[in-house]
Write a structure and sequence with these properties.
Helix content: 25-40%
Structural class: alpha+beta
Distance between the termini: 52 Å
Bound molecules: flavin-adenine dinucleotide
CATH architecture of the largest domain: 2-Layer Sandwich
Order of helices and strands: EHEHEEEHHHHHHEEEEEEEEEHHH
Largest sheet: 5 strands, antiparallel
Length: 298
Amino acid sequence: MKDFEYHSPATLEEACQLLKKYDGQAKVLAGGTDLIPGLYRREIVPEQVINIKGIPSLNFIANEESKGLVLGSLVTFNEIISSPIIEEHYPILKEVAEKIASHQVRNLATIGGNLCNAAPSADSAPILIALDSTVALIEPGGKERTLPLEKFFIGPGETALAPGEILIQVHIPLLKPRTGVSYLKQTSRQALEIAVVGVAALVRLEKKTEKCSLVRLVIGACASTPLRIPAAEKILVGKKIGSQDIEAAAKAASEAVKPITDVRASKLYRKEMVRVQCKRSLEEAISRAKSSPETGME
Ligand SMILES: Cc1cc2nc3c(=O)[nH]c(=O)nc-3n(C[C@H](O)[C@H](O)[C@H](O)COP(=O)(O)OP(=O)(O)OC[C@H]3O[C@@H](n4cnc5c(N)ncnc54)[C@H](O)[C@@H]3O)c2cc1C
C-alpha cells in the first residue's frame, strides 16, 4: 500500500471542506471492504483518504410518510438485516442483504459503498433500481442534488458522482398495494460468492382484473452496469400474466443481455441463467403481488 494522508471528519460539513480542499483528489472511505483491498493491490493510489465512518448523520434508517424509506449511506448490510423498520415495510432489502458476502463483511460493508463502488455484480443495485430508488448526493461546496439510481451507474467502477461528491442517502419509495418484489442471485456456490447473474423483479397487479400494471426487471452482472429490460417488461404490462407470458419475458431478457465470459462464468451460461432466474424471479414477484396487502398509498 502506498502512503497517504488520512482524515477522519466528524461532520458532513468537515468532510465537504476536506473534499473541496483536495479538489476531487481525495478518496472517500466507508466500510473499506472494496477500497482497502484496492489500496493494498495499488489499483488505487490516493494522496488523501477521507474516512466518513465517524459522521453520525450518514448512519440512519427512517421510514418517512412522504419519501418512503430513507437510508443513510453508512448503513451496513447487517444493520439492514436487523432493522425492524425494514423487516416490517421492506423485507426484500433484508433478503438481499442476507445474500451479500459474509457476516463479518456485512458488519463493515455499507449500502453507499456498494453503490459507489459500482461493481456490475453489486447486489443492492438491481433491487434498488427495481424499487425506483433515488440517491441524494452532496458536492464539496455543500450543494445537494438527487438522481434516479438508474442514472447513477456509468460503467464498472464509474458513477455519476462528480469529483469530491458524497452519496449521502438512498430514498426508496413506498411500496404500493398489490406489488411484489424479488431478487434472485445465481452463484457458483451457496455462500460468500459474487453474483454470476442477479435478477430483480417488481410486479404490480390491478385490483379486480389482476392485470399487470407495472413491471421493472433489472439484471446485474451481465453488462457494465445494471440493466433494465424494457423488451421483457413490455410483454407483461397490460396482461393477466400466464406462464407463457413469463416464459416469453424471460426469453426476451436472455436475448437482450450481452454478457462477457470471465473467471466466474461463460457468456452462454450467463445468458441461460438470465432466462432461468428471470422466470423464477417474475413468478416470485407475481405470487408476492397477489398476496400483498390491499391497503396502502395508491
Ligand atoms: C469477501 C468479500 C465478499 C463480498 N461479497 C459481496 C457480495 O456478495 N455482493 C456484493 O454486492 N458485494 C460484495 N462485496 C463487496 C463489498 O463488500 C461491497 O461492495 C460493500 O458494500 C462496499 O461498501 P464499503 O462501505 O465497504 O465501501 P468502501 O470500500 O469504503 O468504498 C467503496 C468505494 O465507494 C466509495 N464510497 C464509499 N462510500 C461512499 C459515499 N458515501 N460517497 C461517495 N463514495 C463512496 C469509495 O471511495 C470507494 O471507491 C464483497 C467484498 C468482500 C471483501
